[in-house]
């Protein structure tokens, strides 16, 4: 069965506390509104989720939890290497996914996620905004087969997108 990878950039984060490390920044008000809105859009598209993988950074973790709640999913896998990851590191994470999961949602950060989307699909996405999501389809039965240029963008959506369904 073909594989589908949904890359979701974390929701808008709070820069108000300069004492916080980047890793510990929480979602701000807009981030807390956009994350459940985007999860609802995903449900409305009929997208199923087999597995959720997330950066352990607070803003990514919080965004992932909104999606998990919307889908009644109990388990989120936290992968430390997603935080501050480049395309090579992200590909390693994807290649290591369990093949029993066909629809995987990964929560993380820019610039890595935008670069990764473009590399996987030969796409021309300038920037994945906060809470933005890109669904990429692969014609493989195994995540190990995923490599540069092997995917196809199914959709690209983000909170301010007026083309929502």
TrEMBL record:
Q: Please name the InterPro entries in this protein's record.
A: His_Pase_superF_clade-1, His_PPase_superfam
List residues binding substrate: 59
Q: Which CDD domains does the entry link to?
A: HP_PGM_like
Q: What is this protein called?
A: Histidine phosphatase family protein
